[in-house]
């Protein structure tokens, strides 16, 4: 089990402040990413209906929260810390 610290970095008046907020367990993070991949996979492996438009790729922006969990971003000023791009395999 490999863990890394989570930090919040802010800048005010030219000064940088770093506050440690928790830890990320890389094994747990990897499992979460696999779950997302496995949930998205059917979108690409299912053939579209005749005449329907097919999906070539999708980009998902994610963040890692203070507790080391992956969060889906919906709106706001938070920047993504992880961007996943899923693409249809060439064989389909």
Polypeptide structure, described:
The protein is α+β, with helices and mostly antiparallel strands and 92 residues long. The protein has a domain at 25-87. Helix content is 22%, strand content 41%. It contains 1 helix and 5 strands. The chain has one helix at 26-45, and strands at residues 3-12, 15-25, 57-64, 70-72, 82-87. A 3-stranded antiparallel β-sheet has the order 4-3-5, covered by helices on one side. A two-stranded antiparallel ribbon has the order 1-2. A hairpin with a 5-residue loop joins strand 3 and strand 4 (70-72). The longest helix has 20 residues, at 26-45. The N and C termini lie far apart (37 Å). The mean pLDDT is 83.
**Strand/helix succession:** EEHEEE
Number of helices: 1
Query: Which ranges are low-confidence, i.e. pLDDT below 50, for 5 or more consecutive residues?
Result: none
Number of DSSP strands?
5
Task: Look at the helices and sheets and give the structural class.
Answer: alpha+beta
Task: Tell me the major beta sheet.
Answer: 3 strands, antiparallel
Overall 3D form: elongated
**Proportion of helical residues:** 10-25%
Give the strand order of the largest sheet, numbering strands 1, 2, ... along the chain.
4-3-5
β-sheet strand percentage = 35-45%
* C-alpha Rg (nearest Å): 18 Å
